[in-house]
Amino acid sequence: MCRHRTHRRFPNTFSSSTSFQLNVMKILQNYLLLLPNYLIFIEVIKADNAIVDCTSPESVFSVFNEPIKLSLRGIIKIYENVTIDDVTTTTNNDLSYNYIDARLEYSARDNQTKNLVIFANKYFESYAKEQTATRITLKIGLRCDMGSEKTLVFIQPLQEGNYFNPVFSQLEYEFVVPTPIFAGFDLTVFQAISATDDDLTNNQISFTSDKSLALYDIAVGVKNRATADKKTCFANLVVKRIFMDLPQQIQFDIIATDNGMPPRSSKAVIKIRADPLNSLPIEPKFIQTLYKGFIDYDFRMNPLIIELENGTYSKDVRFTLLSKDIADYRLKDQHNGFVRIEWSPKNNDRSLILQRKSWEMELKAQNQRLRQFSKTAILIELADFQGNFHFIEDTYEGFISETGNLYMDTITFNPKIYQEEIEFQLNMNTYQLPIDLKIFKNNITLELLDASIVHYMRTVPYVKLSLHATWLHLKASTQIIIKLAQLELDSNHINGNHVEKTVMFKHIEEERYHFGVLNLTFNENCTFLVISQWPPDKEFFFLNESSHSLDLIPIDREDRIFENFTKPLIVIKLKLVCKSFNLSVSESQSSNRFLSRFEKEPFKIDEHDIPYSSSWMWLYLIIDDINDNSPEFQGIENDLLLAYPAANMPSFIYPEYVIHLNAIDKDIDLNAQIVYKMRDNFFFGIENKTGKIYPVVNGLKVGESTSLVIQAIDRNGQGLIKELRLNIIALSEGFYSLLTVGENFKKSVNEITQDFNHISDLRVQLIKLSYVPRAIKKPPTSTNGFVYKAWICAFKDSQPILSKNLKKKLTENITADYIINLESFEEINLSHNTSQSSSSSVFVNYYLVFIVCLFIVYSGCMALLIWYFYCTHSALKCNTIPAISSQCLQHNGTNNDDTIISASSSYPDTDKANDCLSRESSQSHIKFNDLMKSAAIEECQ
């Protein structure tokens, strides 16, 4: 009814504007729709006051309050004018103390009306840190009229929100770790990293870092566990590659972020450094794999400076120059990671020095406490004396006038190689011209001593002389053509009917036509005839009748006919024919119509030995290279499957390089300079100049594989491209075998593996190669103290073969004296453990002892955590074990039979070492240090 009257009154009031009436009607309609809700709300408020009153017929009842913020302090809600005598008890969720509470108080207005006040007390501000529920139950005991009691329950929801930042347990975490550390190792076994978010909801925490993985190969993540209240989460720090050493401290920030809206974050600092008491010394590494020196034309060499990588040098590093040609070279260790190599020949006989072009050596760097060592190749090149021992020009021309004056340019010998000891001699053949040589350094002039000789040579148009240079075993020569003034010769010579140049050189590009290479019309009286061509196997040119010139068809400088040429070229022999020789020009041209037959005559191609003639000319067409050939990978097929050790395997089996690719280009010079590139791959990278593929991270698990797409690009990375796809699969220990080969055998290990490949359907892959001391006390005099050790694996029909099956197949098909041993991983484990148990008097350094001892004592499921704390504690007991004697290490390459004094005899603390050694374990896997130290122990026994 109220709604009807109201609706009827409005049109009478606002009849002046129809549009305004319509707006008012809409407002009235909305009001009428909201009115019932308002009335219901009023009823609820009245009901709430009734519920909290003692007048309620129920003895226990509940009230739901509006959600409150966790930041609220003080009163939550006041219920006015309640009929309650007293509040007897209050509890929160049956907890020991309350976070919200209730009290009964009189109204300030009349001091008679009672109000029930619900409030947040002093403990409420710590609720989020101590509790997880998103609402609080406040149970209130009420005393009513006539001593009756009722219970009132308030349900107080808490408003959700992201109130708190995650907080790390520490602002800085420092990890002091033993090295080497292997891929897949979680550093948090040494120390937990945790962060707590006190929010009641949206408090799941993720851990990240902006640079840990990119710079240091350490992945930051979240562990799959949290505390019971779900507020504290734990991070993990997983090593993604092998760290053989940590020369410098690693430091980065770890960031904890919750999943609230908006998210909140905080960060802490991670510091990782090597434990000097639980780490192997750093293996020295050279900055370059190849160093080049140069002996100049003055027989001097600038000292060659070789450098170790920063942080890999220590006072225990020793350098050794290895080669049979080191007698003339001196090595000076500068004791700062730099080595200076000087050349000081004991025999200054230059003739002997010139007999060779280069010296190849290796420089070895080895820490005396390590079995491993690094090598770099050294190539000393001698200046190209032979290639540069020549005159600047092949032919020099002069002229003797009718008055007997000699005019000619200065003859110049290559100044780059000129030596004062060079002897010059003029060979005048049958013409005994009185000519003297004037020599000033590398410049030579001719002087005619007697001009009257000209009158006796009026019928000779020219004189051909040869100038020779000799020094030690080197020889060079040039031709000198001296023309003589002729006043009484016939008209043919006067008209110039003789060739201008005996030898003509022209450069032509391959793979394209060349028109007008040579005009065969010499003058109005003479023309050239093509007599012969070299090489004679194929015709490269034809006669262009319209222009009467030689044209060239496209020539491939990589054609097989040039494969034995130092410099691909074509030589054409031409004869100048003139009318006075009873041969017309037309006849000359017709004889050149089709050049398919040449004269049968000996053909000389050395321009220095071509005789001078007025009617013969040799045209040298030097074929210049263009980039028309793509690189080709050598000895490897596309989609080849290669093995690589899976993650968490012993470090000694990991190769420095997966494979060394070699691509060649048939082109020359810049066109043949190859750069290698590889599409982005998480696990492997490539050296762009050498083609060596190396591991970036060691993250491939057993059975996992990855594909590598490699490009070989010529013209120094700007030219033609050849692609190769390789597939890398991670194999476990059971697929690798250790091959031992005598070093003195003439075949290399690569050649031996190729011998294995001759077995049907078997492909052997060389994983890693090194040479180690022979484990015998008295090696035969015919051998040295080293043998090759090579880790190999094999495939059959693109399937990997277990090492035990490989050994069976190879031993059945190959019998060779040079193969000392072939062992599977299992056999190496067995022999290694047996040798450890039988050598109680031998000592190893403390790092191995810690691992072996602790594995026996702490073999429970918590072994990893306990191992770290025990190692830290045990360092004080076992760190007196001396390092392996440098005397033992230096004995590696010797062949004498002298007895080596045991290193333990010179140390008073050997008993402590033996105490630690008595706690050996039967490990099922070979560790990096085990192999290194056991080999050194056998060496000293």
Supply database-style keywords:
941 residues; alpha+beta; Immunoglobulin-like; five-stranded antiparallel β-sheet; 51 strands; elongated; disordered N terminus
Query: Which structural class matches the secondary elements?
Result: alpha+beta
- The count of domains is 7
CATH class of the largest domain: Mainly Beta
What's the N-to-C terminus distance?
116 Å
Relative strand content: 35-45%
Radius of gyration: 48 Å
Instruction: Categorize the overall geometry.
Output: elongated
Main pleated-sheet profile: 5 strands, mixed
CATH topology of the largest domain: Immunoglobulin-like
Helix content: 10-25%
Q: What's the total helix number?
A: 17
Low-pLDDT runs of 5+ residues are 1-17, 33-47, 487-493, 581-600, 775-785, 835-855, 866-941
If you average the pLDDT, what whole number results? 75
Supply the CATH architecture of the largest domain: Sandwich
Strand arrangement in the largest pleated sheet: 24-23-30-29-26
Q: What's the number of extended β-strand segments?
A: 51
Keywords: Calcium, Glycoprotein, Membrane, Repeat, Transmembrane, Transmembrane helix
Transmembrane segments: 846-870
Subcellular location: Membrane
Membrane topology: Single-pass membrane protein
